[in-house]
Amino acid sequence: MIKHRFLLTLMLIFSFPFFLEAEDYRAILEKADALASYLDSDFSAEYTIVHEKSGSGRETTVSAVFRRDSDYKYTIIVAEPSINRGQGYLKLKDTLWFYDPESRRFNFTSSKERFQNSNARNSDFTRSTLAQDYDVLSASRTTLGTFNCWLLDLEANNDEVTYPKMKIWVSDDYLVRKTEDYSLSGQLLRTTAIPSYQVLEGRFIPRAVYFFEALVDEKTVISIAKPSFRAIPDTVFTKTFLEKSGQ
Amino acid sequence: MKKLFTPFAILIFLLSPLAGQDNDIDSLFSDAEDVPAEDAADVPSQSGDIDSLFSDGENASGDGQANQDQTAQNSPSLLDSLINKESFHFGASFDVTVGYSPGWEISPEPEFSDSALMFLSSKLTLDATVNDSFRFLQSYNVAFPAFEPKVSEFFADFDFGDLVYFRMGRQNLTWGISRYYKFTNLHARLPQDFGYTYELNSTTGTHIIDSTTDTYSRVVIDSADTITDTDSYSIKMDIPIGIGGFQGLMLTRNGYFSDASTPAADELGWGGYFNLALPWADMTIGGFYHKDLNLRGFFSAQTTLFKRLELYTEAVVSYDQGMDDLLPLIDDEPDENDQYVHEADPDSLDFGANIGFYIDFLDGMLEFSGEYYYNGEETELEPLGTKLGMSLVWGHNLAGGFALNLLDKTLKIEAYTLYNISENTGVAAPVITWKGFGFLELKAGFLFVYGSEEGTYTRENPDPSSLDRNYSLVLQAKVSGKI
């Protein structure tokens, strides 16, 4: 009898993922989105981006990031390096305006592009919409270092996203710890890791985000400092602000 | 006033380092620079090792749940520290270009040469924020061989409670979208007396252009009378509305006014636009008036399809308020000066429009752009900043280009062309640029015109000699730096 209970317990443990339906997996994504988005307040922080590429050395970019996730907006002002100082990005939903202080012109561009030639995409700076953009194909339990995680296989349900397929590791506290981004053919393109978070006013902010390109020897680290949830004036999210902040 | 400015600018630059020790805005980010250096050192060398990042969290508790949490403090306003802090910033850049160009020399001024290139340029910039509502910027260039300081920008910014923003002084302004034909950059249009004029082909003396039976010839003004310094001075007012907003502009430039210190009211140009920036499109409508120019209005719109394909269109309407527009008779042979004969344009309204695209692949490794432009305007077709220094040509135009960025974007192979269908005339420029060695840039380009020998691009190519050579080879090495 005891042996049977033990076996039953083991079966329950190992079959635990199968008791969850697709809707439950979606709930995991929704909770992960909620923790990575700041819908009830503005957010600002200083992002330091170190990009390393084999043979090209290390490039450091320092930017001020202002987010208003509730309106799908962000503004980024580049402070360093000096050659790019004053460049600015203004994103509204899927549309991105880029301001170049040299030419004093705005470019109207896609948010799929790389940010300052690093491995980060312009879409990496905005609110998370995993549950909205992806369907869960499969799920399993796994460990990632010291973390117990859900490993979810995702496939995009629209063609507006940057990557059509993803694998995502979500720890039991619903924080995204790692992602693998794939092409439509299943080719691994990029791996992202978020080993630790900082907590401010009960909300989670990555301390550092690591990006690895799979096809070339490139990596990028984004360190996030000086976080704040204070209100940001509306004018920060205007072209005039980019022009004023640029040289 | 202009003479006083140069010693003032030099004085400012000499004195400013004394005060710059405590006010450099770059110091705002000095703390942050230590963070990535440590993090980058800890980054696994290969993506396969990335899981090691999760093995030894700072506060590992063994249950795998708490090692991520570190309480942070709400930081002082980034906005105040980035934008509003009293500070000033110095910038400096230096270019040295050497090379050989048997043909056109595009920079600094289009002309034909068969000599070695030697060009040195230095730019100094002072950008000072006095408080959250007031800031000023000045920058000036010194270039070899003239060595005469030239003020490239000199303006002040101030605003009233984030409602209205003003920028006044000498500033770079660009309206419009097109990569090739900047016909909607209305304030950059120049009236005919900036470099050339039209003479009546008769001896009847004073004449009012009102007859379609008279003809005129385009004549370049003597160099002594030509206005080469077309710097502008302006007051710009921006009122943010949504992401875009309204911009008002009052502008004048050298050549419009006779007394530099006191331009008269009727020597000023007036204009403005309204920009509606939506998530799916960016639209602008505006206009510009100056008494020596045709009155013009413009419209532009751009959007991005499939998150990749940028589409744009622009249109301009021009009203000949002086009734002095002339129409080139392109069906006739050019005159003895190789110029088309002109006659009065009976239409007071002209129209121009374009449609174009830009798309890139493989993270910008491969870029394509193209544009169709119909130009129904006959006059004031030499706006500042046109591609290859070429004027806008009446009729149907096509433009296109591609760029291939290789070796981590250090090697760029590009080519572009402008072609006028109506006159069967075109200009093209394949260029190879290599930036693989620090501050050194090597460039090789071959510029040439093609098509009808009577076409505008051939007739107006920069070769001033009678040979009228229609090509140019540029080989140059450029060393540049900026801080």
Mean pLDDT of chain A: 82
Unreliable runs of chain A: none
Largest sheet of chain B: 18 strands, antiparallel, barrel
User: What is the domain total for the residues of chain A?
Assistant: 1
Per DSSP E runs of 2 or more residues, the count of β-strands of chain B stands at: 25
Give the helix proportion of chain B (percent range). under 10%
E-strand count of chain A: 15
Q: What is the CA-based Rg of chain A, rounded?
A: 20 Å
**Poorly predicted regions of chain B:** 1-41, 57-68, 106-110, 203-212, 223-227
CATH superfamily of chain A, called what? Lipoprotein localisation LolA/LolB/LppX
Taken as a percent bin, the fraction of beta residues of chain A is over 45%
In the CATH classification, which architecture of chain A applies? Clam
Task: Produce a short descriptive summary.
The complex is a heterodimer of chains A (247) and B (483). Chain A has 247 residues and is α+β, with helices and mostly antiparallel strands.
List keywords for this structure.
heterodimer, A: 247 residues, alpha+beta, outer membrane lipoprotein receptor (LolB), chain A, 13-stranded antiparallel sheet, two-stranded antiparallel sheet, 5 helices, 15 strands, 46% strand, B: 483 residues, mainly beta, 18-stranded antiparallel barrel, four-stranded antiparallel sheet, 4 helices, 25 strands, globular, disordered N terminus
